[in-house]
């Protein structure tokens, strides 16, 4: 096998890689051949020393697959992990939306009940007034959270379709 055939097999094997990564790998093997030839070997001896290009391609992809699996980057697992994260994120946003809306609703009901109680009894009970103010503050904070969460939810829902 000559140099052209060797690099043709490597290029075909590495065809699925990024152009930069493929060029880098091919340049590395070219450098290995030049170093071997500079040390006195012929082109055939240098190519024989490097090995069969089909084995090189197979071992490269096997090493990268093992590295990806060890580091949690395996394609199938990462897709599933991303899908589960998106699902839980969506569920979490729905829970926040529902709980915030319920809290705001009950805060409004509590304030209305306090006003009716004040009108019917005619006296202001300080701790009830304090609780109403706290509920109003929390309801305002939750309403801002509710609007931002709603925007994120709508944006994410629109992006997934």
TrEMBL record:
Keyword list, A-Z: Membrane, Transmembrane, Transmembrane helix
UniProt superkingdom: Bacteria
Transmembrane residue ranges: 86-119, 125-147
Protein name as annotated: DUF1700 domain-containing protein
Organism lineage: Bacteria, Bacillati, Bacillota, Bacilli, Bacillales
């Amino acid at each position: 096998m000559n140099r052209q055939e060797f690099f043709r097999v490597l290029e075909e094997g590495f065809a699925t890689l990024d152009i930069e990564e493929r060029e880098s790998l091919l340049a590395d093997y070219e450098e290995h051949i030049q170093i071997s030839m500079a040390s006195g070997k012929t082109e055939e001896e240098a190519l024989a020393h490097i090995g069969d290009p089909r084995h090189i391609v197979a071992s490269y992809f096997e090493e990268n697959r093992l590295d990806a699996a060890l580091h949690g980057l395996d394609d199938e697992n990462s897709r599933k992990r991303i899908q589960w994260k998106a699902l839980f994120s969506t569920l979490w946003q729905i829970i926040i939306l529902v709980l915030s809306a319920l809290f705001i609703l009950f805060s409004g009901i509590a304030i209305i009940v306090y006003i009716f109680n004040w009108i019917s009894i005619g006296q202001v009970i300080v701790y009830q007034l304090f609780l109403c103010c706290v509920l109003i503050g929390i309801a305002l904070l939750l309403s801002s959270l509710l609007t931002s969460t709603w925007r994120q939810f709508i944006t994410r829902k629109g992006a997934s379709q």
